[in-house]
Protein 1
Amino acid sequence: MPNKHAALKQIRKDRSRRQQNQALRSELSTLTKRLVGLLSGRKLDEAAALLRNVAKKYDHAATKGVIHRNTASRTKSRLTLRLNQAAAKS
């Protein structure tokens, strides 16, 4: 257990930041799964609207350092590709 007041405060800050980051990662995962579900259900209009929100969330997470910016870019690219392929099939 740390002895200094500043170290205790840092532990509290780390804990709250971890919870916030975990919540954001969970939200990203949930939104991605919802988007993939819409694509498999051929609901392309809803999927296109959701993709804009998902891309915005990924950019926000990358800006805050929750995920790496290349990870955000790669995921957005793959989701966009899946949407475009689904649109081309129908």
Protein 2
Amino acid sequence: MSDKMELFLGLIVLLGVIFLTRKYHAWRIQRAYRLIVDDLRASNALTPETAVDLPYAGKNLLRIGLRDHRKMALNHLVLEQVVGQTDDSRYYLMMDIKEKHKD
């Protein structure tokens, strides 16, 4: 096999790995969105008065291994005003994700 062909195949494999890695992380973040909304719904945290603490909202120094996408997803949901945050760092569901996408 020529050098050019090996370089071309290597580039294709590298692009494939990058693409699959991005797809994997996007899937994990989407899954984290659903988990957070389900947790808040199950806790009936629908107003600031009924807001709850989420164990994965804070930083955990002992967590070693795969990245936990829940913290990043929670921050994004707060920025998108799907999830509200109280002054004492408790969280509640402001709007369902399905309602947000209808707008």
